[in-house]
Amino acid sequence: MKVWLALVHHPVVDRQGEVITTAVTNLDVHDIARSARTYDLAGYFIVTPIEAQRLLVERILSHWRDGAGARRVPERSEALGRVTIVSSLEEAAAHVEAAAGESPLTVVTSARVSRATTGYRALTAELETRPGLLVFGTGHGLAGSVMAAADRVLAPIQPGASYNHLSVRAAVAITLDRLFGHFD
Amino acid sequence: MKVWLALVHHPVVDRQGEVITTAVTNLDVHDIARSARTYDLAGYFIVTPIEAQRLLVERILSHWRDGAGARRVPERSEALGRVTIVSSLEEAAAHVEAAAGESPLTVVTSARVSRATTGYRALTAELETRPGLLVFGTGHGLAGSVMAAADRVLAPIQPGASYNHLSVRAAVAITLDRLFGHFD
Questions:
Q1: How many Cβ atoms are within 10 Å of A6's Cβ, its own excluded?
Q2: Is the separation of the CB atoms in A44 and A33 below 8 Å?
Q3: pLDDT tens digits, residue range B35-85?
Q4: Do A144 and A115 touch, CB atoms closer than 8 A?
C-alpha cells in the first residue's frame, strides 16, 4: 500500500488557537509506529522543526532498531524500522514523492470540521489509485494553514459525540482501522 | 449504554507466557478513559491487586478530578470521572452488577485466537440486550484462566496481518469504534 502517515509537532495550535510547536513524546513514536505497521503503511514521519528533538528521536530509534532494544523486543524493531524524522510536512511529502514516483494526496484530520470533508470509504477507494499522506496534529490540532493546503479533510471520528477528545494515538488507530481494517 | 471496560494488570502473561502483574501506567489511565468517554461507556475499571498502585492511581485521579488539573483541563476531568480502581476482575463485575441490576456478559479480547470467537457486529447486537464488561489485558495479554472463564472471546483485530502488536491503547480504541462507532 502506498500510504504514509505524518505526526506533526509544528505548525499546530494550543487550547487558545495560537500556533505552537509541541514536544515529541516517546509514546507517540512507539504507539503510532505499531499501529502504522499493523495496517501495513509504507512509512511514518515524525515532523518537528526542532533539531534537538529530531536527534532525540533518532537516538530512541537507534536503540530499538540496532541496539539492546532490537535484541530484546524484535517486533518493536520491525515497527520502528518504518519511522523517519523530518523537519517539515513539505519534507515528508518530498520523501513520499521520491519513493512513490508521484506527489501524494495529502489528507488532514481534525476533531473539528471547517471545510467539506471526505468520508472514510470514499478515501479508501481514492487511495487505491494514488499515493497518500495522512496528516495528524498533536496539541489541539493542525494549524489552519495546514488544513487549508491539504487535498482532502477526513470526516471527524465522532462528530455528534458529547465528548470529543480522543488522544492522537487513539485517533490514528481508529482512522487506520476505518480506512484499512476488515471485520465482521 | 450499559457497557463497561476493564484494563487488567493481573492475571496477565509475559513474553514467555508466565503469569505476572504489570505496573499501572499513567498514559493507560488517561488514553483509555478518553476513548471510553468518547464512545459513552458507563465506566472504566483499572484492575490491580497491588494496593500501592491503587493508591497511586487514586492520587492521579484526584489531581484531575478535583485538583489543579480539573481547573486547567476540564474535559480530562470529565473522562476520568468514570474511572474506578478495583483489586480484581470479580470486583469489577460486582460493581457492574450493582449498577446495572444484573451480571454482565464478560467479553475478553486477545491478539491470539484460542477458542471460538464472536464477531464485532454480533457482539454489538448482544450488548443491546444485556450489560457488558469488555476486558483487555496489559503485558502480553490476559492469562488463560481469564480467557477460559469469559462468556465471549472477541475476534482478534487483524488476524491475518503479518504484524500484530498493537498497543493496548490502540486496541481499545479500535475495538470501541468497531462496536459503537458509525461512519461513511
A1: 28
A2: yes
A3: 999 999 999 999 999 999 999 999 988 888 877 777 887 777 888 889 999
A4: no
Cα(B176)–Cα(B38) distance, rounded to whole angstroms? 9
Closest A-chain CA to B180: A158
Any B CB within 8 A of A121 CB: yes
Query: Which residues, listed in sequence order, are joined to residue A42 by a DSSP beta bridge?
Result: none
Q: Is B16 on the interface with A (CB under 8 A)?
A: no
Q: Collect all residues of chain B within an 8 Å Cβ-Cβ radius of residue A109.
A: none
Residue pLDDT, tens place only, B81-101: 899 999 999 999 999 999 999
Q: Which residue(s) pair with B83 in the sheet? A: B44
ipTM metric: 0.94
Nearest to B44 by CA among B97, B111, B94, B96: B96
3-class DSSP state of B154: strand
Inter-chain residue contact A165 with B34, CB threshold 8 Å:
yes
Task: Residue A48: name the closest of A108, A145, A169, A138 by CA.
Answer: A138
Asked if the C-beta of B76 comes within 8 angstroms of chain A's C-beta atoms, the answer is yes
Q: Which residues contact A104 (CB under 8 A, 6 or more apart)?
A: A2, A4, A93, A96, A97, A130, A131, A132, A133
Q: Which residues of B119-154 are buried (b: 16+ CB within 10 A; e: fewer)?
A: ebeebeeebeeebbbbbbbbbbbbbeebbeebebbb
Domain positions in chain B are 3-180
Contact between A171 and A134 (Cβ < 8 Å): no
pTM of the model: 0.95
Please report the pLDDT score of residue A143 as a whole number.
Answer: 96
**DSSP reduced 3-state for B179:** helix
Instruction: Encode burial over B37-53: b for 16+ CB neighbours within 10 A, e otherwise.
Output: bbbebbbbbbbbeeeeb
- Cβ distance B115 to B144 under 8 Å? no
Distance CA A42, CA A40 (A): 6
The class (CATH top level) of B3-180 is alpha beta
Which residue among B39, B155, B162 sits closest to A183, beta carbon to beta carbon? B155
Mutation to test the A interface, candidates B40, B166, B176, most A Cβ within 10 Å: B166
Mean pLDDT of chain B: 93
**Residue indicated by cell numbers 523537519:** A87
